[in-house]
Prior knowledge:
Helix content is about 30%, strand content about 20%.
Amino acid sequence: MPETLIKICGLTTPETVDAAVEAGATHVGFVHFPDSPRHIGISDAAKLRQRLPKSVRAVLLTVNLDPKATALALQAIEPEVLQLHGNETVEWLQLLRDNSTLEIWKAVGLKDRGTLERSERFKGAAHRIIYDAAAQAVPGALPGGNGLTLDWRLLLNYRHQVDWGLAGGLTPENVADAIRFTGAPLVDASSGLESAPGVKDVGKIKAFCAAARDAQPARV
Ligand SMILES: O=C(O)c1ccccc1NCC(=O)[C@H](O)[C@H](O)COP(=O)(O)O
């Protein structure tokens, strides 16, 4: 059984990046989206990215970022993964995939079982789909990092056509249950590892990684 991949998202400081690496995270995420309390500028993300050993992958997260700004960010940060968290099209993902060595991940708000089927349109364009809680339909709501848990039952017995990961409201306390219940091959957490919006807690990062590592997935 392959080990569950662990992504710690929204890191902005050397201390928390180092803590994630030491705790066994496989992926570290940088949110480049000015509306987010976890936003990080390109040059700061590029510096933090340098702290990662080869075994830990950098994930650059953007939301409907235009092609020119995307190219500049990719050039400076050199992430292994680009996670798209907006309304990006299949065609845009395909273009990125066909013209780079990047892994392309697409975040999808999981509302109902139909969302899983509709997400299959990303097959061949996205290397991985990250199922997150659907964003709230209120002005100013962020498309991610909201600490909302999705209904894990929607994922039960679904035969995924694309590699996937689980996000949304994951914490050190619930991540083992999430892995056992859904069989998620990757877990992704952000606000559940914070002491205040945008402020990651080293102790929570360590506890999350330990709990995720120790969980026994029941994959189908
Ligand atoms: O984290 C943010 O602020 C953010 C803002 C805009 C789009 C996506 C964002 N985060 C995406 C992530 O990868 C989070 O890990 C994921 O949404 C789960 O967040 P949380 O429920 O807070 O663990």
